[in-house]
Specification:
Elements: E1 2-7, H1 12-21, E2 27-33, H2 42-45, E3 71-74, H3 81-90, E4 94-97, H4 107-114, E5 128-129, H5 132-141, E6 144-146, H6 150-164, E7 173-179, H7 194-197, E8 202-203, H8 212-223, E9 229-235, E10 242-249, H9 257-264, E11 271-273, E12 291-296, E13 303-310, H10 314-329
Parallel strand pairs: 1-2, 1-3, 3-4, 4-6, 5-6, 7-9, 11-12
Antiparallel strand pairs: 7-10, 8-9, 10-13, 12-13
Organism: Acidiferrobacter thiooxydans
Family: Belongs to the NAGSA dehydrogenase family. Type 1 subfamily.
Subcellular location: Cytoplasm
Length: 344
């Protein structure tokens, strides 16, 4: 058994971690922290966990909070994990950050987009980017894993076979993606109120979303050179899910893109390539660690359109973190993640 601690367990990613880890056959949860809720029973805040989790929230600065933990997973807002990671790593604890503190290699770029000084820039180069479909071997050996963002997961998995094989014009990459309201977190924000978000769809951060540099970095690493990438996110009136529509220009329109995707993802447990003509839906991945993908060729063009759907809280956050935990601990990659999507 592996003992896992959780920093920041009161948000949506924290509650999703609890849901997944509380039924993981190889994990015990040693501690879960929250400054605001310290001393409160977890099941009082999350009644869905009654009978599944008997922990009490503790203060993250308390003495010996993570004593005996093998891995600590940080489900905090951006800027928090980087203040805990140096001490935890020095104590021999492995760390998975579900926020963005260690995702972007260029510290100046990170500080520009996240509006703060990085607390431990020396660790950024060591951190392994936790997209298993790209970095599985490195994740297994890592002390520090930077869990990818939700939009970056859907977009990178959608583009991966095309970009890593050099099949598309790298100046033609575009993504239009929609997300449910849980992607904004659990805090009180007027745009997320039901009366504001219901029966409406809107684009946001069109001039620059903070996931843009993360996606561009990942695509450039796949391609071995810089890329030009346009990303437009949208808010839609649903709770969970991301659906990304990706566009690119093929260098050789005769390429069998369906076969390409089926071959690339044949052995990936959490990527499901639909048959030709398919259309993934967010409800078919709700509560699962799956990314469902479909590939289309608009007639009479040299373009390819890729559709990618994930649950933003699972494959886009906590589920992928558990997938990385499994890799780091030598477990089967699917341990604790064999959920079937809820329907309807």
């Amino acid at each position: 058994m592996v003992k896992v601690g959780i920093i920041g367990g009161t948000g949506y990613t924290g509650s999703e971690l609890l849901r997944l880890l509380s039924r993981h056959p190889r994990v015990t949860i040693g501690a879960i922290t929250s400054r605001a809720e310290a001393g409160r029973n977890v099941a009082d805040l999350f009644p869905s966990l009654r009978g599944r989790c008997d922990l009490t929230f503790t203060d993250p600065e308390g003495e010996g909070v993570f004593a005996g933990c093998d891995v600590v997973m940080s489900a905090t807002p951006n800027g928090i994990a980087m203040t805990h990671a140096p001490r935890l790593l020095a104590e021999g604890v492995r760390v998975i950050d579900i926020a963005a503190d260690f995702r972007i290699r260029d510290i100046a770029v990170w500080e520009q987009w996240y509006g703060m000084k990085h607390a431990c820039p020396g660790l950024v180069a060591e951190a392994v980017y936790g997209l298993p479909e790209r970095h599985r071997a490195a994740i297994r050996k890592a002390r520090l894993v930077a869990n990818p963002g939700c939009y970056p997961t859907a977009v990178q998995l959608g583009f991966l076979p095309l970009v890593e094989n050099g099949l598309v014009d790298l100046s033609s990459l575009m993504a239009s993606a929609v997300s449910g309201t849980s992607g904004a977190g659990r805090g009180a924000h007027v745009p997320m109120l039901f009366a504001e978000a219901a029966e409406s769809v809107k684009a946001y951060a069109v001039g620059g979303h903070r996931h843009q540099p993360e996606i561009a970095q990942g695509l450039a690493q796949m391609a071995g050179q810089p890329v030009e990438f346009v990303f437009v996110p949208h808010l839609v009136p649903m709770i969970r899910g991301i659906h990304a529509t990706l566009y690119a220009r093929l260098k050789d329109p005769s390429v069998d893109v369906q076969a390409l995707y089926e071959t690339r993802y044949r052995d990936e447990p959490f990527v499901d390539v639909l048959p030709a003509g398919g259309h993934p839906e967010t409800r078919t991945v709700r509560g699962t660690n799956l990314c469902r993908i479909a590939v289309h060729r608009p007639k009479g063009t040299d373009k390819v359109v890729v559709l990618s759907a994930i649950d933003n809280l699972t494959k886009g956050a906590s589920g992928q973190a558990v997938q990385n935990l499994n890799l780091m601990c030598g477990f089967a990659e699917t341990e604790g993640l064999d959920e079937i999507a809820l329907f309807p």
